[in-house]
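Run log, item B.
One chain of 244 residues. Sequence copied directly from the ordering sheet:
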Amino acid sequence: MGWKKGRCKGKDVWIEVDEAGKPLEGSGRVTVRYSDKEGAKLYRAGVGNLEVDAGPVEELPAGVSADAATAAKGGGFGKAGTRTEGQADAARNAAAELLASFSAEAAVCFTDGACQGNPGPAGSGAVVKLPDGRTLERFAALGKGTNNVGEVHAVGLALDLLDEVGYPVDGAVEVLTDSQYAHGVLALGWKAKANLALVSSVKTKVSSRKARLHWVAGHVGIAGNERADQLANQGVEESKKRAR
């Protein structure tokens, strides 16, 4: 996968394409961006509105979905536990559209972290759905840590599962997290002020697989995310046992 220059309704854009240079379509829509900079907003456009130039396929730094960017500014989806029904519906719909946009040939990773006390007993969980239909799951007990540690570690945990089953290094990988912190330090160029070794290690894993990270709202009924949350809390319970 990569990007090619083109136009959307007459405006210059970058269009996400497959290895053959054709728009990477999902449910009739294609991801586009107006900037080639890291953290650029990603939009979904109808394939019929796009014109792709004949130039080369290029690699661009990670972007962030426009829905997620809006939510990160305090609008859109609200917060878990205090969302209105309308906000929860909007979050579910945005997640459903995102999932529908992924290629059937991609590995899709759901990740979550948890802790009690922040810092306190911490854990991470990952659910990986492979293109061949297999589902991989794992939790990790992290001892005493913060929720941010659990969230970042969970992304690395998912990618480790891909390594263990021999998933191709050049295979498409989509990673979902409900942590703005994990998304920021791993994909948007945020400068980590703590957990430097962990963040660096996981960023290396992300870049080596050219995995795409996506922020989604937590606790809105996304099955993979809910299961990752359960696994992360198993990690918390195991951390508590080991501390006794």
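Observations after the first pass:
- The chain has two domains: 2-52, 89-243.
- The chain has six helices and twelve strands.
Flagged for discussion on Thursday.
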